[in-house]
From TrEMBL:
Pfam families: Asn_synthase, GATase_7. Keywords: Amino-acid biosynthesis, Asparagine biosynthesis, ATP-binding, Glutamine amidotransferase, Ligase, Nucleotide-binding. It catalyses: L-aspartate + L-glutamine + ATP + H2O = L-asparagine + L-glutamate + AMP + diphosphate + H(+). L-glutamine binds at D71. The lineage of its organism: Eukaryota, Viridiplantae, Streptophyta, Embryophyta, Tracheophyta. Pathway: Amino-acid biosynthesis; L-asparagine biosynthesis; L-asparagine from L-aspartate (L-Gln route): step 1/1. ATP binds at L204, V240, S314, G315. The record marks E316 as: Important for beta-aspartyl-AMP intermediate formation. It is an enzyme of class 6 (ligase). One of its GO terms (molecular function) is asparagine synthase (glutamine-hydrolyzing) activity. GO terms for biological process: asparagine biosynthetic process; response to stress. PROSITE patterns: GATASE_TYPE_2 (PS51278). Residues 1-158 form the Glutamine amidotransferase type-2 domain. This is Asparagine synthetase [glutamine-hydrolyzing].
Length: 556
């Protein structure tokens, strides 16, 4: 797993306990090598993540002596003071293992939403294994699984407990009136706290709403930060896409408006196809939409790292929080709209977070996601969902509450047409050629006979298309264990919905497809209800709405 942290390798042994760490140095590169310790080295920690409120926490631990300037150095000392109950005090993204050598107990925890990846496994000899990736466990464990986000595992109790218990988690319907300035301030705070870095960084910019807002706020507040003093106040932005992509054009327009140093990377369909096996190996999934989306992000991350950049700020999570996917147009009422956003946020660690973390970590690059800030989520998910409902007759398009919050006439964040830019299909020369290329490649490797017997070969999450079958074959070659295939989600979905939301429209049940055009009656180019999906022209089947993961100018 050296790809995740090429800056330092740390190994610690205490009896039959081993802690190993590959470090990607973002804060205090000079002295923050791991493992990290408390004063007498009785508490040992390895951690992947960033603790944005570490300076505030250090003040609460003023009587403690810190060995490094690392933001993660507070973890061992917080455990000394508060025991296992300290985790909710951390504001950031993290996966850590903490060993208390005084009694040989250990604690494992993962951040609230699961931005950082983490897995847990058990050996036949009674051993417990923890790893940031499947490939650290699959050859040594009898059983392994994804470590649940917002949870803590304690060796003393031998089980999990949820430490993250926000009001929205119960899916109770909130009633706080929408206040655009409150939402704006909350997101600005989420972005600015992520400017904490001791290394060069940038933003991923696709020209869509989410990535453009992240870039705009970063550019607006960068000048007064420590990062600007070290690396300069001019922001760098990054975008990737097929030649001639309309999103590349939009990203250039936003970059020019904000005055960023813009880096545009191009890839070909063949470049993407050539990378598929590496993508599946690193992302560790066979989910079709995740692989489609991860491939350009994987290619872009390599380019960004080659420029000496080690951290990027990205825009994942907005569509889940605000109901930005096309199928939300069919939400029957505000209650079901809100419950679906809750379900989508809870599943992010299996999809967009998985992609953002692993596609970047494959090249020693870190992605930070301000939309998934704990405090921002609490603010956004407390809003009466009536305000989030899509009402075209009132001019309220998807994510209207977010757009309105940043519609400032005096000090505009973005040009109006970008701020109110709807989710768009890609033109034939961009999205179609990429996805069609993938399907054509898969068709050359998967026969009709293979598809006929797919349910016997892959009884769990049986692939229903040749593209899905092709990805599954590659995944099973790398990760043949049953535990591995169980870590990948499945079930009915239309336009990236949960299975529950498929019930919103009877026509959807016969048109199950991740494409946005499967949202019948919503998209202008939606599938017609009479024709089964298998008979659709490939250019219709495979065109899907841009999920607006910043910097990647293709559909996922």
């Amino acid at each position: 797993m050296k790809h995740r942290g090429p800056d330092w390798s740390g190994l610690y042994q205490h009896g039959d306990c081993y802690l190993a760490h590959q470090r990607l140095a973002i804060i205090d590169p000079a002295s923050g090598d791991q493992p990290l310790f408390n004063e007498d080295k009785s508490i040992v920690v390895t951690v992947n993540g960033e603790i944005y409120n570490h300076e505030e926490l250090r003040k609460k631990l003023a009587h403690h002596k810190f060995r490094t300037g690392s933001d993660c150095d507070v973890i061992a000392h917080l455990y000394e003071e508060y025991g296992e109950d300290f985790v909710d005090m951390l504001d950031g993204i993290f996966s850590f293992v903490l060993l208390d050598t005084r009694d040989n107990s250990f604690v494992v925890a993962r951040d609230a939403i699961g931005v950082t990846s983490l897995y847990i496994g058990w050996g036949l000899d009674g051993s417990v294994w923890i790893s940031s990736e499947l490939k650290g466990l699959n050859d040594d464990c009898e059983h392994f699984e994804s470590f649940p986000p917002g949870h803590l595992y304690s060796s003393k109790s031998g089980g999990f407990r949820r430490w993250y218990n926000p009001p929205w988690f119960s899916e109770a319907i909130p009633s706080v009136p929408y206040d655009p300035l409150v939402l704006r301030r909350a997101f600005e705070n989420a972005v600015t706290k992520r400017l904490m870095t001791d290394v060069p960084f940038g933003v991923l910019l696709s020209g869509g709403l989410d990535s453009s807002l992240v870039a705009s706020i970063t550019a607006r507040y960068l000048a007064g930060t420590k990062a600007a003093k070290q690396w300069g106040a001019q922001l760098h932005s990054f975008c990737v896409g097929l030649e001639g992509s309309p999103d590349l054009k939009a990203a250039r327009e936003v970059a020019d408006y904000l005055g960023t140093v813009h880096h545009e990377f191009h890839f070909t369909v063949q470049d993407g196809i050539d990378a598929i096996e590496d993508v599946i190996y690193h992302i560790e999934t066979y989910d079709v939409t995740t692989i489609r989306a991860s491939t350009p992000m994987f290619l872009m991350s390599r380019k960004i790292k080659s420029l000496g950049v080690k951290m990027v700020i990205s825009g994942e999570g907005s569509d889940e929080i605000f109901g930005g996917y096309l199928y939300f147009h069919k939400a029957p009422d505000k209650d079901e709209f809100h419950r679906e956003t809750c379900r989508k946020i809870k599943a992010l660690h299996q999809y967009d977070c998985l992609r953002a973390n692993k596609a970047t970590s494959a090249w020693g690059l870190e992605a930070r996601v301000p939309f998934l800030d704990k405090e921002f989520i609490n603010v956004a998910m407390s809003i009466d969902p009536e305000a989030k409902m899509i009402k075209n007759d009132e001019g309220r398009i998807e994510k209207w509450v977010l757009r309105r919050a940043f519609d400032d006439e005096e000090h505009p964040y973005l040009p109006k047409h970008i701020l109110y830019r709807q989710k768009e299909q890609f033109s034939d020369g961009v999205g179609y050629s990429w996805i069609d290329g993938l399907k054509a490649h898969a068709a050359r490797h998967v026969t009709d006979k293979m598809m006929f017997n797919a349910s016997f070969i892959f009884p769990h999450n049986t692939p229903t298309t040749k593209e899905a079958y092709y990805y599954r074959m590659i995944f099973e070659r790398f990760f043949p264990q049953n535990s591995a295939r169980l870590t990948v989600p499945g079930g009915a979905s239309v336009a990236c919905s949960t299975a529950k939301a498929v019930e919103w429209d009877a026509a959807w049940k016969n048109n199950l497809d991740p494409s946005g055009r499967a949202a019948l009656g919503v998209h202008l180019s939606a599938y017609d209800a009479e024709t089964p999906l298998s008979n659709k022209p490939s250019k219709v089947i495979d065109s899907i709405p841009r999920m607006d993961f910043p910097g990647v100018a293709i559909q996922s």
